[in-house]
Amino acid sequence: MTSTLPDERIIAFDVWHCALPVVGRRDHGIGSVGGTIEVVILRLTGESGRHGFGEASPWTVFTGTPEASFAALDRYFRPLVVGRSLKEHGAIMDEASRTVVHCTEAKAALDTALLDLAGQVTGKPLWSFLGEKCRDEIPLSCSIANPDFEADRALLERLEDDGVSIVKLKAGFRDHTFDVMRLEHIRKHHPGMTVRVDYNQGLTRKAALVQVPDIAARFRPDFIEQPVRAGDYRTMAELRGLIDVPLLADESVFGPEDMQRAIDEGICDGVSIKIMKSGGLERARQTAGMAFAAGLSAYGGDMFETGLAHLAGAHMIAATPEITLGCEFYQARYFLAEDLLEKPFPCEGGVVRVPDTPGLGNSPDMGRIERFAIQAATDQNHKTLINC
Fold first, then answer.
1. Could you report the per-residue pLDDT of 302-338, keeping only the tens digit for each?
2. Count of domains in the chain?
3. Are residues 229 and 372 both part of a single domain?
């Protein structure tokens, strides 16, 4: 891949920690999100004056904290990047992986910004640095996760009007009766929708062995995802043998290392691929490739992201034929009160359209970044500013 990258020197490295308002609440098996989401935005500047952007989208109960992503980028990755050439992309990412453990979201932001800048310099879309483009459109799934189901009834109507035909019901955050009631409503009032069920680790082993087979038998969802805690491989493998719908792993599989163990222990029929878990676009593609080689399916998941991270995921999926179950890049349109992108995230008619324009194909609005920033560190003064 480095042979196609330009010899452009990086001269500036700027980071913002932003809090963006959301329009409702999302409940999951391991936690809730409402009020705001927090992301970390990275901007790299090349010697040509062009910019590349990336986003770290952490969730404290899942991958990490925004403060950790901010520190990883500002304090530890900055010295690895400034003054280096984009042709050193591979070496930079290798050094970043050794310099800081975990902080996979910060590594994803760095990887994205490097490749976005390469695309801006060369005029090529980001996916072209990963491989051949295998799709122009990606089916879109939206999560049904509001504890106020009246709000989600309205969302379901809106989704159907917008042509979205895949929904994922977030389950296990209240009780089984609530999950069944919502699934019955979707089946009755939206029979054309493909339904998936995601517990986000919300069930105990005892509850999972009862509730998951019941949901599988009564509703036959497209798949059931991560009923129990990430490390409970035993129960995941046992559930897989009890149900006749696909069982997917999310929190149990971050990157290639976890994927190999999941394959070896037979815990799932498929996997959620997220660049924020994997630590970069190429590692996400590698994880999907391993799943496919083992006969497992894959889909493109997300964290609580803006359209910037959605775009990175869309480019990754466009160059990864092994991801066949669509994507969940709905936050920019259906959850954020205001996105960061200058132009709307490209989803319509129930699909995400992959850009062919340079880099990510869109850029964040700097005025919005500065308006939502709660912390910043720029190369201009290289000191952190609190309460920007």
1. 999 999 999 999 999 999 999 999 999 999 999 999 9
2. 2
3. no
